[in-house]
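Private note to self, pasted from the team thread so I don't lose it. Backbone tokens:
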């Protein structure tokens, strides 16, 4: 039986497979095998192993947010009244259920959380901030920045 720690080590071919799949996960197994110089069954076995080891969080199609009507991308900083653990738990529970919130990060510094939010319009942003975020118990301060343009946006990790 193999040592479980050795199973978690990935080699250069595994990294090449991961790089290719990050760029385009719809690539055929045959094409992927050609690109990494392995047979299709060997590539399939490696992908299955990587999946079992938890290297894949999921398989998704990345949509163009503007084409589906979400013209506004916003970064929202939020400060909470951290002296009450119930406020922290409530905030996390509520935010994790909000469809407008694409990402939420717990931070150090001047603010406690950073939210990446999409809305269709300025009115939707106003409604989201006024009616949704400010109504969460413990929210003390909100600062919103509108994204004017994306310089870089990627989901690919640097597997060099």
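Design output:
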């Amino acid at each position: 039986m193999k040592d479980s720690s050795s199973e978690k080590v990935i080699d250069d071919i595994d990294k090449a497979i991961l790089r290719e799949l990050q760029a385009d996960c719809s690539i055929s197994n045959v094409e992927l095998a050609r690109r990494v110089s392995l047979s299709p069954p060997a590539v399939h076995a490696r992908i299955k192993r990587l999946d079992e080891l938890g290297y894949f969080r999921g398989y998704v199609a990345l949509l163009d947010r503007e084409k589906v009507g979400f013209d506004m991308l916003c970064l929202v900083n939020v400060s909470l009244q951290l002296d009450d653990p119930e406020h922290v738990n409530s905030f996390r529970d509520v935010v994790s259920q909000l469809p407008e919130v694409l990402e939420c990060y717990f931070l150090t510094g001047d603010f406690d959380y950073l939210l990446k939010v999409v809305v269709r319009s300025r009115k939707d942003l106003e409604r989201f901030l006024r009616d949704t975020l400010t109504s969460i118990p413990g929210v003390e301060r909100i600062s919103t920045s509108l994204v004017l343009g994306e310089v870089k946006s990627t989901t690919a990790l640097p597997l060099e």
